[in-house]
Hints:
By secondary structure, the protein is an alpha/beta fold. It has helices at residues 7-10, 37-46, 61-70, 85-96, 112-119, 137-147, 167-176, 188-191, 212-216, 228-237, 245-255, 258-280, 305-314, 340-353, and strands at residues 24-25, 78-82, 102-107, 123-128, 151-155, 180-184, 205-210, 222-226, 285-288, 295-300, 317-318, 320-321, 332-336. The chain folds into two domains: 2-30 and 259-353, Aspartate Aminotransferase, domain 1, CATH 3.90.1150; 51-256, Aspartate Aminotransferase, domain 2. Bound molecules: pyridoxal-5'-phosphate (PLP).
Amino acid sequence: MKNWIRPEIAALSAYHVPAPGDWIKLDAMENPYQWPEELQQEWLKSLPDAEINRYPDPAARELVAELHKVMEVPEGFEIVLGNGSDELIQLLMMTVAKPGRTILAPEPTFVMYKMIAQFVGMEFVGVPLDVDFELDLDAMVAAIEQHQPAVVFLAYPNNPTGNLFDRAAIEKILSMAPGFVVVDEAYHVFAEESFMGALPHYENLLVMRTVSKMGLAGLRLGLMAGAAHWINEVNKVRLPYNINVLTQHAATFILRHAEVLEVQAAILRSEREQLLQQLSLLKGVVKVYPSKANFVLIRVADGSADRLFEALKEGGVLIKNLSPAGGVLADCLRVTVSTPQENHQLMDALRTRL
Ligand SMILES: *Cc1c(COP(=O)(O)O)cnc(C)c1O
C-alpha cells in the first residue's frame, strides 16, 4: 500500500507547531492585544446575525467590500480570499502547476513557499540572500532567466529575517520575470511600505496580505489582490465555501473598526524599536538584525542557540529556534514583539540565561 504515497510527500516531515502551553508565546508573530471591552460586547451582541445553519456567502461580498477599503486595493483590481494566506499560496500554485514548472524565491524565507511547491509537484528554486539578508539581484535575475519560474515569491518584509528588500530590486524583478511575482505583505501594518499601489504598473504583480499578524490569526483569512483576469482564474481553483460564516462575520465587524487594530499596530511598532535597542545592548547577542515586522531576528554565540532556546522555554518563554534550519540561520533565534510587560519578561529571561 505504501507505494501509493507520492515519494516526495513520504520524504517530507510535517510542519511542526508546538502544542499550546502556559508559555509567554513569542514564537508565532501573534498580536497580544484583544479588542476593547465595549467592542467585544458589541460583537457578541451581533453574533446571532451569523447564520451558521447556512452555507457562507461564497463570494463573501460584505467582507470583500471592507477589505477593498481597509487594504487600499486600487480601483479596478480584484481580490480572492483564502483560509489564511497559506491557502492562497496553495491556490495560486494549483492554478499554474505543471510538470517541469518551477517556483522561485530567495532563501531563507517563509518555508511554506517551498513546502506547498512540493505538495503540488512543482520544482522549487531557492536563491541565497546576501550576507545582510538583502536580495542578491544579479543572482535572482540569473536564476529567473535560467528557470523561467511560473511564480516568484518575495516576502516584504521577509520572514524570518525581518527586513524589507530593496524596492528597486523588486521592481527590476517585476519587470523581467516571465511569470507572476507575488509580493507577500503579511506584515504590512508593521512595515508601512507596500506594493499595493504598484498593481496598475505591473501586469504580473500579485499582492498578498493576511489579517493574521494584525490581530486576527485565529480567523484564518488572507487575500490576494491583482488584475481581475488573473484573480478570476485563481478563484476557479478555490473551494466555494473556504471562508466560513463566523470568519466572514467577525472580520467584517472588526474591519469596520479598523482603527482599533491600527492603534495596536502602532504600539507594537514602537515596542519593536525599544526591543531592537535593548537587544543590541545585550552581551551575548552577536547581532540584532534590522526589522520592519513584528519580530526580531538575533544571532547568538556559536553553538548556543539550542541551549538558550530550551532554557527560555523552561523559564516559560517560547520563542522560535531557527538554528536547526542550519546554513545562514545557524545560531539564530526569532522573537515576536509583544506587550511592554511580555517584552520585559523576555529581556529578563535573556539576561539571566545568556
Ligand atoms: C505568517 C506568514 C504568512 C501566513 O499567514 P496566514 O494568513 O496566517 O496563513 C504568510 N507569509 C508570510 C511571510 C508570513 O510570515
